[in-house]
Amino acid sequence: MHEGHRQRMYEKLNNSDDLFDHEVLEVLLYSACPRVNTNPVAHALLDRFVSISGVFNASIDELKEVDGVGANVAYFIKTVGLCAERAGSIGTSPTLKTFGDCKHFINLRLRGKTEEFIELYFLNKAGRVQRIFSYTSFEKSRASVKVDDILRNVALSRPHGIIIAHNHVDGSANPSEYDDNFTRTVQFICNMNGVQLIDHFIYLSQDEIYSYNDNGRLREVKNFCSLESFEKWIKTLN
């Protein structure tokens, strides 16, 4: 009985369905109460503390006063509350809206690298970085990414926009033919998934960062990856 109900709740969570507050607490408590029906406990917690925030802000002694909440459950809830508090205060991800934002962030990420790296930053609508995917072949002059990896990550994360960044270890920050081809590949993937390719940055040093967007090269890539070109590209894969 409990296992079937829990599986349905996990499916709701996995499908990003709207969950009521008591359902959120119910699922959370599965980890602390593996063999107990946590629905009554979740309702009792909300009845006492009014909201999820109130539950997390309650003291351990207060939590233990609620029916069904023993010491272990109280410690678990309090720990989760502290995690949420700290994530809200110091765990916010950076926002990349301007060239200055990107330059600073990419410099922090790629400065001092002795091998070439490719990084994909997945952004939400507000320009906040939600996911970072970093790839290297541990070679000085070449990093590569499997197209299947990008497709899978885009499908799972569903970003609003993507920024590409990679470093050149020596020479110049100007793009190579390989860089252009990789940018086109990512643009095709973005077209397939309704995602915006925002820019591709090539990092050589703090003072030498090339922007596809600022140099008009991204526009050329987008034109190349039009629907007509996309259809031709698909045919080459079959």
What would you say this structure looks like, in words?
- This protein is of the alpha+beta class.
- It has two domains: 2-90, 5' to 3' exonuclease, C-terminal subdomain (DNA polymerase, domain 1), CATH 1.10.150.20; 99-237, Cytidine Deaminase, domain 2 (3-Layer(aba) Sandwich), CATH 3.40.140.10.
- It has eleven helices and five strands, in the order H-H-H-H-H-H-H-E-E-H-E-H-E-E-H-H.
- It has helices at 2-14, 21-28, 39-49, 52-57, 60-64, 71-90, 99-110, 147-157, 177-193, 217-224, 227-237; strands spanning 117-123, 129-136, 161-167, 196-205, 208-211.
- Helix 2 crosses helix 3.
- The protein is elongated.
- The relative contact order is 0.08.
- The model has no long low-confidence stretch (mean pLDDT 89).
From the alpha carbons, calculate the radius of gyration and give it in angstroms. Answer: 24 Å
CATH top-level class of the largest domain: Alpha Beta
Molecular shape: elongated
If strands are numbered along the chain, what order do they take across the biggest sheet? 2-1-3-4-5
Order of helices and strands: HHHHHHHEEHEHEEHH
Largest sheet: 5 strands, mixed
State the end-to-end CA separation: 48 Å
What is the count of structural domains? 2
SS content category: alpha+beta
How many beta-strand elements?
Answer: 5
CATH architecture of the largest domain: 3-Layer(aba) Sandwich
Q: Spell out the CATH superfamily of the largest domain.
A: Cytidine Deaminase, domain 2
- Low-confidence segments: none
Report the mean per-residue pLDDT as an integer.
89
CATH topology of the largest domain: Cytidine Deaminase, domain 2
Helix content: 40-55%
